[in-house]
Each structure stands twice: as structure tokens, then as C-alpha cells.
Amino acid sequence: MSVICIIPARGGSKGIPNKNIVKINGIPLIGHVIQNVKNSKIFSHIVVSTEDKKIAKIAKKFGAEVPFMRPKYLASSTATMDDVLLHATKKLIELNFKFDIFVWRDATTPFINTNDIKKSINLLKKKKCLAVCGVYKQHLNPYFNMVEKNKSGFLELSKKLPNRPKSRQEAPIVYQLNGLYVYDTQKFLKTKKTDFSKCIPHQIPIETGLMIDIPFELFIAKSIFEKNRTR
Q: What residue spans define the domains of the chain?
């Protein structure tokens, strides 16, 4: 089965300005991700979906393809990723790209292991689901230590059970999505959305599943790269 990788990367970013091209060890973040994907030697094509000419130029420099430019309306902070992926898959089919499976790799996930990509693809083939989602187990738990304000301004647990767990270990296990999604192309074109009730998780270690969305996570990523460089 033919597999391609789609990396969505828009120009705007609120948490970290120009996040997708911020440099770590002299290499733009998206460059690290493209290199990671290339090194896996899994994909027939690595495609970047962007509206930003600078990102497109950097993506090509590191070996990805940019066969189309994303429309501006799909590059706003309110655009859904499902719409971005639907646009990308349809455009690629129009351009005669052949693929049974596509992997959506977030442009902020530079450490995902090749074996986890392969295992996710194999799980999709085996289970015949809509998608396989990379996740890692979260120590922050809405049943135990995550709270929100109620209408009166007081705190309450985000999710309640008849009896509150006495420890985090007793609470139901929860996972965080971490930027690796493997889709059955034809099923996605039919559903036009990521229906999580038809998705299966593949658990990834938190060290390799790190997503960079805030400055502190960027600091962690830089520390990891620096540690790996000095080994």
C-alpha cells in the first residue's frame, strides 16, 4: 500500500511567533521534522501544506514537496485541521498522487520514532479503522487533578466520578494526542472529519511524542537536541 506524509504548516502562530520555522541548533523546526520523516524511508512523498512562501521555500530546501499552496482561508486560527487535510488530500489526488494511506505529521513533533510510525501504519491495516492516533499517557488527569471554574467562580474537577479517586494511579487513564495520525485515505474522504469513535490509539513515549506549542516546550526540545548533539 502506498503511504505519503502530509505536514500542515501555516505561517501564523500565537503561542510561539513563527513557530514552524523557529531555529533549533541552526535548523528550522519544520526542517527537523522533514529530516525525521525522510530518515524513516517509509513514504513515497513528503508533502507540506502551507500558505506561507517562506515556509514553502524552507520545506523544499529540506527535501519536502509543495505541489500546491494552501488557500488563505484555510490558514487562519479558526480553520479546522480536518478541512486542511481534506483540501490537501483532494488536491493531491487531482495532481495524480497515488496513496492508500496518509500520515498527518504535525510540524511541531521532531522526535517521533520511525518504529512508532511503522507500528501505527500496521495497526491501521490490521484494525481497518478510520485512523490511528499517536498518544502518550498523561499524568495530568481530569478525574483527579485538573480543575475548572464553575459559574460561581469556584473550582471543581473537570470530570467527576461518583467517588473521587484517592490517588492519580486510581483514576481512569487518559491520553494526550501528540501529532502523529495515520489515515485510511478513502475512509477519510467519505467521513470528511476525524471521528475519534472510529480511531485507535498507539501509545508513544512522552520523550519522543513531545509537541512544541509553548515556549517551555521549545526550551525542552532545545535541551533534548543539545543533549543528543553532545553525546
A: 3-134+177-229, 139-173
Tens of pLDDT, residues 166-211: 998 999 999 999 999 999 999 999 999 999 999 999 999 988 999 9
What CATH number does domain 3-134+177-229 carry, 3.40.50.300, 3.30.428.10, 2.60.260.20, 3.90.550.10?
Answer: 3.90.550.10
Whole-angstrom Cα distance, residue 193 to residue 101? 15
Residue type, 63: G
Considering the entire predicted model, what is its pTM?
0.93
For cell 484494525, name the residue: 127
Spatial distance between the Cα atoms of 198 and 179, rounded to a whole number of angstroms? 17
The residue type of 14 is K
Cα Rg of the chain, angstroms: 19
Handedness of CA 214, 217, 222, 225 (dihedral sign): negative
Q: How many residues does the chain have?
A: 231
In terms of phi and psi (left: phi > 0; alpha: psi -120 to 50; beta: otherwise), the region of 144 is alpha
